[in-house]
Amino acid sequence: MFKWVTGLIDRIFAAAGGVLFSQVPLYMKQYAQQLNGHVAELRYQVDAMRQAATNSGKTLEQFIQKFVDNPDVDFVRQGDIMSAMVNRWHDITNALTALQESSVITRPFVFMRHVNGDIIKSTWSQYVFGLPFTLEGLVYAVVGIICGFLIFYGIRKFFLALWIIIKSPFAGKSTKFDVKKIDVKKE
Fold first, then answer.
1. pTM
2. Under DSSP, is residue 116 helix (H, G, I), strand (E, B) or coil?
3. What is the pLDDT along the chain (187 residues), one digit of tens a residue?
4. DSSP 3-state assignment of 52?
5. 87 and 111 belong to one structural domain
6. Does residue 187 belong to any structural domain of this protein?
C-alpha cells in the first residue's frame, strides 16, 4: 500500500513539474511580446524627440542637454525625463535583441540577465496558461518532470531521515510485556 501511494505521489510531482516548467517558454514569449510593445512605444517617443531636435538643428543629445542645462528647474526635470526615456529605450531594445537572438539553451539565462521588473509584473498579470507544442516546450517539460521527481524524492528522504531521528531515542525500548523477565519466588 505504501509503495502504491508513494508511486502515485511521485507521478503527481513529476506531472506538476512538467506542466509548470512547460510554462517557462510561454511566459518568456509573452514577456518578449510585452517588451516589444514597450520598445515600439519608446521608439515612437524617441523618434519624435529626434525630429524636434533635427528641426532645431541639433542632435538628440544636444537637444536633451539644452533642457538639462536650462536654469529653469522645470526644464531640467524635463531634460532628465527625456534622458531617462532614451536610456530605457536603449536598455530594453538591447534586452529584446538579446532575447530574440538567444538559443533554447541560453534563453533562460539571457532572460534572467535582462529582466525588467515592471514588465515582469505586467506580463504576469496578463499571463495566459497554455500547453506548448514546440521542441522548446518539450525540453522544458522533460526537465520539469525530472525536477518534480527530484523534489519529491528529496522531500521523502528528508521526512524519512526526520522519522529516524525522532524514532531513535525510543529504539531498543520495548513496550511489550515480556513474561520471561518476571522473577517469581517460590515459597
1. 0.74
2. coil
3. 678 888 899 999 999 999 999 999 999 999 999 999 999 999 999 999 999 999 999 999 999 999 999 999 999 999 999 999 999 999 999 999 999 999 988 999 999 999 999 999 999 999 989 888 899 999 999 999 999 999 999 999 998 888 888 887 766 555 554 545 545 455 4
4. helix
5. yes
6. no
